[in-house]
Amino acid sequence: MRLIPRLLLSLLALLPLALSAAPAASDLQEGRDYERIAQPGPFQPLAGKIEVVEVFGYTCSHCAHFEPQLVAWTAKLPSDVRFTAVPAAFGGPWDAWATAYYAADQLGIAKRSHGAVFKALHEDRSLPMQNVSAEELATFYTQYGVTEAAYVTALKSEAVQAKVTAARDFARRTRIPGTPSLVINGQFLVKGNSAEDQLRIASALIAQARSGKAR
98 has which bridge partners? Predict the structure, then answer.
């Protein structure tokens, strides 16, 4: 009959070890967990927020695998944290898909269609990785309630091109090494050996930013 009390004691003894698996913000080390950005600056004015930017690419398989974990993580972010997805405009197909994202964003359908684009590219293979046409994109996005003509107009608009340029400039200034990459407040580039590691470090950097102790 003493089995349950002993089991509870064992679990309580292991609790500190479980908590230590998620190091506090003070345990972060520059160079190991994050890099300090040489030319710091947020993607958008902070306006009292803590900014988390994910630089992603639709054709990146790592980004596709990262997406479900990122969605779950961002859903739990507190109100003082602003998450912004920034498409990588590294040239070639990267630019084409960055433009596709911002056209959807301009039409107000980017959030609803974001995960579906990854699925279409990496699972269904219903969209081409390279040389995707405006017509193919427009047809895909009509399922979100926009017309083909409206999407093509947005795709070719100066406003969308300006957003792509801003995304490209941000990635260059912060020296994004690849995708997916997380940047906190335009100051810190998250490192890590796995998606779980990246999100753990990002959470700790957010805590540092909130307390004003980011070093």
Answer: none
